[in-house]
Amino acid sequence: MPLVHGFDPPERFVAGTVGPPGSRTFFLQARTGSRLVSVALEKQQVAALAERIDELLDEVMDSGTEAVIPAVAPLALQDNDPLEQPIEEEFRAGTMTLSWDPGDERVVIEVFPFTEAAVVSPDQLGEDQDFEEPEPDEVLLVRVPAGVARAFVQRSESVLGAGRPTCPFCGEPIDPEGHLCVRANGFRRRDPV
User: Fold this and answer.
1) How far apart are CA 61 and CA 70, in angstroms?
2) 3-7 and 12-18 as β-strands: parallel, antiparallel, unpaired?
3) What are 90-131's pLDDT values in tens digits?
């Protein structure tokens, strides 16, 4: 049986970063009382989770449910505070699952640790092998009401947007000293101001 870091619901559930833009480490943090769990993950995972939560809540709204789903994050639930200290990584996120529990009207998020055994190489894609994903040692399980989920999405979008600006020509991040833009044939572009 895996160790389940369960929060139903947490007092706080946020995405945040540590470090300067360009070398930030992203975390999901859940807290209830003095119990705090931090899970490291990639920027793309934060973006995908926030986008999918937003889509899930929109789908539930459109389904004709009796549940009250806010279209935007309620002001009272906005959270712009930094991550809580100490930040001690429980594990690095791999697979994440997301669902809606109509019984208690909550978004259910499960985050499983990254494992090398679950990675399939391009050579193995065409093979008819049974790939059995290993049983995880631990899992982060968070169940949040719809308003808290919308607030999570709003904060995640803010955190994602606080990184390096992107080049308007190629879409790559611009470092403080500029970057070599592939669309400008290698000419160094500076941050457009």
Assistant:
1) 8
2) unpaired
3) 999 999 999 999 999 999 999 999 987 655 556 655 565 555
Q: Which residues face 92 on adjacent strands?
A: 40
Is this prediction's pTM over 0.90? no
Each residue's pLDDT tens digit, 60-74: 999 888 888 999 999
Backbone phi and psi for residue 43, each to the nearest 5 degrees, phi listed first: -55, -40
Alpha carbons 58 and 69: distance in angstroms, whole number: 8
Q: Is the pLDDT of residue 16 over 70?
A: yes
Over residues 124-139, the mean pLDDT reads 69
User: Rounded distance, CA 169 to CA 180, Å?
Assistant: 11
Phi-psi sector, 157: left (phi>0), alpha (psi -120 to 50), beta = alpha
Q: What's the CA gap between 184 and 178, in Å, rounded?
A: 13
Contact in structure between 72 and 3 (CB atoms under 8 Å): no
Q: Which residues of 132-160 are buried (b: 16+ CB within 10 A; e: fewer)?
A: eeeebeebbbbbbbbbbbbbbbbbbbebb
Pick the closest to residue 108 from 146, 75, 82, 65 (CA basis): 146
CA distance 16 to 48: 15
Measured distance CA(116)–CA(122) in Å, rounded: 14
The answer to which of 66-70, 76-80, 138-142, 149-153 has the lowest mean pLDDT is: 66-70
